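pls design
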């Protein structure tokens, strides 16, 4: 099982000429739980492993040209669970993220509970609570900005199945 998390540096940085990012309280972690054996039948057992990747930021400000985007606390988490047994392997993915608040140029934006896209004046878009699942894994973004030739992600977590030779389930 492969666990990956990407978390931006908590500092002021110019990503592209017109995009600036400032984030505070940025954290991330990965946890792997291995080997909970359970009897399926008297002659067979299975083993379940799981992994969790998570990231968070206390707050962030994105400046795109003259547009200022203020984001409250953000979290992102992905989980993979794999059960290996005599009949083969089964796996499942889950993900979730949240953004506590959003203001654009000082005006509060009403938040939805699921994925949300906000079109920005002058072009570009801000995607909140966006996930992408493939046959091998899941990636969750709390915030993803596409603007001015730059892509900025804050609060990304990802888990995936490893293709390594020692993995009992190798796609």
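designed seq:
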């Amino acid at each position: 099982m492969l666990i990956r998390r990407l978390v931006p540096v908590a500092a002021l940085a110019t990503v592209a000429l017109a995009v600036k990012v400032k984030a505070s309280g940025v954290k991330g972690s990965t946890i792997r739980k291995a080997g909970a054996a359970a009897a399926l039948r008297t002659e067979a057992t299975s083993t379940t492993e799981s992994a969790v990747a998570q990231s968070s930021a206390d707050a962030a400000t994105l400046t795109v040209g003259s547009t200022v985007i203020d984001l409250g606390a953000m979290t992102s988490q992905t989980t993979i669970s794999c059960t290996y047994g005599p009949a083969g392997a089964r796996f499942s993915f889950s993900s979730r993220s949240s953004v506590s608040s959003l203001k654009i140029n000082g005006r509060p934006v009403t938040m939805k509970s699921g994925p949300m896209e906000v079109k920005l004046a002058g072009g570009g878009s801000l995607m909140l609570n966006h996930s992408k699942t493939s046959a091998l894994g899941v990636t969750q973004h709390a915030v993803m900005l596409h603007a001015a030739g730059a892509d900025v992600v804050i609060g990304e977590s990802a888990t995936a199945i490893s293709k390594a030779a020692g993995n009992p389930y190798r796609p």
